[in-house]
Amino acid sequence: MIAARPIRSAPFADRCPKLWAGLALALLGAVFAPAAQALEFHSVAANGTVLYDAPSLKASPLYIVSRYYPVEVVVSLEGWDKVRDVSGELAWVEKKQLSDTRTVIVTVPLADIRQAPDAGSPVLFRAERDVALEFLETTGTGWVKVKHRDGQIGYVLVTQVWGA
Questions:
Q1: CATH tag for 104-162 (out of 2.30.30.40, 3.30.70.100, 2.40.10.240, 3.40.190.10)
Q2: Cα(157)–Cα(123) distance, rounded to whole angstroms?
Q3: Do residues 85 and 44 lie in contact, with contact meaning Cβ atoms separated by under 8 Å?
Q4: Per-residue pLDDT tens over the stretch 98-155
């Protein structure tokens, strides 16, 4: 007598390798795509710029921001940008109210702006919380090169500002 053995089929992954490979790539893309996207930062072009809860002048105003206030563009529509600010709030602003000048805002009580991107470098000046500085470049070593509106140029730790 021959012993009956259960019919065993190959695991689903073995039967559909292309499907699993596609799913794996899609999952990896979903996880790493946001990190790969370049962040788009701008600053507000004029004092008294209104941010709204929807992309329309008839929408409810949320708050008013001043010139040089940095924002991150999250979504762009015709004539409007949905932006995120330093507090993480989302709002809509007319594109014409934004400048290509990129700024950062100090997020600590007092930030040391140094002569070189090094903690041992001399302090050129200090900037208080909520002071906007023009973003010049990132060093890739945890420092950002910035310019104060009075013309002084120096380096600040990226952890002490938002918008870099």
A1: 2.30.30.40
A2: 12
A3: no
A4: 999 999 999 999 999 999 999 999 999 999 999 999 999 988 889 999 999 999 999 9
pTM: 0.71
Residue with tokens 């400048």: 99
DSSP label of 121: S
Query: Furthest-apart CA pair in the chain: how many Å?
Result: 97
- The residue that leads in pLDDT, 128 or 17, is 128
CB atoms within 10 A of CB 104: 27
Which among 41, 30, 35 has a CA at the least distance from the CA of 84?
41
- Which three-class secondary structure state does DSSP give residue 13? helix
> CA nearest 133: which of 142, 121, 125?
125
